[in-house]
Amino acid sequence: TIVLSVNQLQKVYEGKVPYQALKDINFKLKKGEFVAIMGPSGSGKSTLLQVISTIDSPTGGSVLIDGKNPHQMVKEELASFRRRELGFIFQDFNLIHTLTVEENIMLPLSLEGVPANEITKRTREVARYLGIEALLPKRTFEISGGQAQRVAIARAVAHQPSLILADEPTGNLDSKATKDVMNLLKTLNKEMDSTILMVTHDAYVASMCHRVLFIKDGRIYQEIVAGDHESEF
Ligand code: ADP
Ligand code: ADP
């Protein structure tokens, strides 16, 4: 099954001089695929992730997530769709520092209206699964960057989203923590059949994915499939 379908996607930033950041982007992610996007600074990676994550809207083409077009939804419907279907992982973790680790992981579940006892159960389960049970009562400033990213991953997957979007998840981590976080994402991908789209600058990180899409000047110009030959666009 296709989880994400990006079709002739275009994004023009209006302004004195309009700028076309995305020219004609086409690709699909099947369920259980782990795909990286690489490209030089200014090539359109953030824009692409922002449009797919519905933070921003396209000026042409479409994005379908589980066959639904979030950009055509009204505000309330979109908010609920994002909470249910998407999981976000950021470079700077985006944890809330006034909350404990456990409360951070619980937050998306409570926003979704999951019953309290179910929230506690699922939070404990995901923490055990990701090996961060001991961190649950801690404050976010008491833990390391690598631990913070594990917590952020737990928060992103606790509601079992259809699609996980990760924006340079290892960008602020040293090589040991990078390895740990990537192993965790690989495990999630394999064992839970999670579908992950990740922007990265790190060739080692990209090499752990099934496919790498290379973007330049708002176009995908190359795709490399793991253990396969390169295919030119
Ligand atoms: P990347 O993430 O690959 O570094 P971006 O998607 O951030 O690239 O940017 C792609 C291009 O679009 C760049 O030339 C950038 O300056 C431009 N751009 C990004 N966001 C905006 C915006 N809000 N308004 C105008 N131009 C933008
Ligand atoms: P990165 O290279 O890490 O993706 P960027 O510096 O390209 O980061 O972009 C950071 C943020 O600034 C993004 O949200 C992007 O949309 C915005 N941005 C980038 N270029 C412009 C621009 N020319 N005008 C307005 N916003 C921009």
From TrEMBL:
<dbReference type="InterPro" id="IPR017911">
    <property type="entry name" value="MacB-like_ATP-bd"/>
</dbReference>
<dbReference type="InterPro" id="IPR017871">
    <property type="entry name" value="ABC_transporter-like_CS"/>
</dbReference>
<dbReference type="Pfam" id="PF00005">
    <property type="entry name" value="ABC_tran"/>
</dbReference>
<dbReference type="InterPro" id="IPR003593">
    <property type="entry name" value="AAA+_ATPase"/>
</dbReference>
<keyword id="KW-0547">Nucleotide-binding</keyword>
<dbReference type="GO" id="GO:0005524">
    <property type="term" value="F:ATP binding"/>
</dbReference>
<protein>
    <submittedName>
        <fullName>ABC transporter ATP-binding protein</fullName>
    </submittedName>
</protein>
<keyword id="KW-0067">ATP-binding</keyword>
<dbReference type="InterPro" id="IPR027417">
    <property type="entry name" value="P-loop_NTPase"/>
</dbReference>
<comment type="similarity">
    <text>Belongs to the ABC transporter superfamily.</text>
</comment>
<feature type="domain" description="ABC transporter">
    <location>
        <begin position="4"/>
        <end position="233"/>
    </location>
</feature>
<dbReference type="InterPro" id="IPR003439">
    <property type="entry name" value="ABC_transporter-like_ATP-bd"/>
</dbReference>
<keyword id="KW-0813">Transport</keyword>
